[in-house]
Amino acid sequence: MRIVEQEVLVAKNVTKQYSSGQKAVDQVSFVIKKDECLGLVGESGSGKSTLARCVLALEKVDQGEIWFKEKPLHLANKEDLRYIRREVQAVFQNPAAALNPKLKIIDSLMEPLDFQKNIQPSFLKGIRHQREKAAEQLLEMVELPSKYLSCYPHELSGGQKQRVTIARAISIEPALIILDEPTASLDVSVQAKIMNLLKDLQQYLGVSYLFISHDLAAVNFMSDRIMVMKQGKIVDEFSKYDLFSLKREPYTKELLHVFEG
Ligand SMILES: Nc1ncnc2c1ncn2[C@@H]1O[C@H](COP(=O)(O)OP(=O)(O)OP(=O)(O)O)[C@@H](O)[C@H]1O
Question: Which of 100, 204, 216 is nearest to 154 (CA)?
Fold first, then answer.
């Protein structure tokens, strides 16, 4: 398949069926462009996380194609997978589960950089191999003081832990970050702060996002374009400025109704 330069990820007719026979993802196609945030909204069980796992190459697709830049995820060999794992990072709902409780924050944070010695992120120029300085810089980017580097995860709040997982995701300067309900486990006041941080980071780093949530308000705040998923299918797709258009599908209007309260 021909990939246009500005396209970071292209999914074409992706289908994933579990052994129960149910199609969790059914003929889904989309494009994520450089620097853009694509939002994916749908109620629980609509297939959002399954699609995310396919994009992360954690699930094998049954039909269709997923291309990350010029690499076919659906046919990826070991070397392609190594490249994709570096370029596509993820932040999930539960930061407590994402951090090893036995590791100090500095060690969880630096895991990707410790592992991939040859990566030179632009924002760590001159300090890439000074481990503590690099870790301090990463924490600063997510607005956390460096004193947390020597703490264990249980000493941090949920929002602080999520900031650490975000810092870890950006640490190797990926091209795409999958954000799967990144604020769902956090207090409402913290949710807004994390979303603002994610927006600022996106602008600063020029990274692309796939932002996944059941909350249309959150998706609308974060995204340039929005896809609505229902029972494994994309039932609506539009620019965020067209959310209130009369042309929206009835299901989007239902979600909108919940959002407007
Ligand atoms: N490992 C699995 N084995 C079998 N069925 C699964 C598996 N994972 C998900 N499913 C089913 O696939 C469908 C889509 O689930 P998925 O978790 O992708 O939806 P979701 O929109 O992310 O929901 P949620 O927001 O609740 O996580 C659901 O019916 C779910 O029960």
Answer: 100
**Exposure letters 199-222 (e unless 16+ CB within 10 A, then b):** eebbeebebbbbbbbbbbebbbbb
Q: How far is the CA of 226 from the centre of ligand 1 (A)?
A: 20
Check whether domain 7-260 has CATH 3.40.50.700, yes or no: no
What ipTM does this complex have? 0.96
- Angstrom distance (rounded) from CA 154 to CA 147: 14
* Three-class DSSP category at 111: helix
Region of 47 please: left (phi>0), alpha (psi -120 to 50) or beta.
left
Cβ of residue 20 lying under 6 Å from some atom of ligand 1: yes
pTM score: 0.95
Q: Is the beta carbon of 228 within 6 A of some atom in ligand 1?
A: no
What residues of the chain score a pLDDT lower than 70?
A: 1-3, 259-261
pLDDT tens digit string along 78-118? 988 999 999 999 999 999 999 999 999 999 999 999 999 89
Q: Please tell me if the CB atom of residue 252 comes closer than 6 angstroms to any atom of ligand 1.
A: no
Q: Is 24 touching ligand 1 by the criterion CB < 6 Å?
A: yes
For atom 10 of ligand 1, the residue with the nearest CA is 24
Residue 20 alpha carbon to ligand 1 centre in Å: 11
How far apart (Å, rounded) are the C-alpha atoms in residues 23 and 34? 29
Cite the beta strand spans of 53-159 per DSSP E: 63-68, 71-72, 88-91
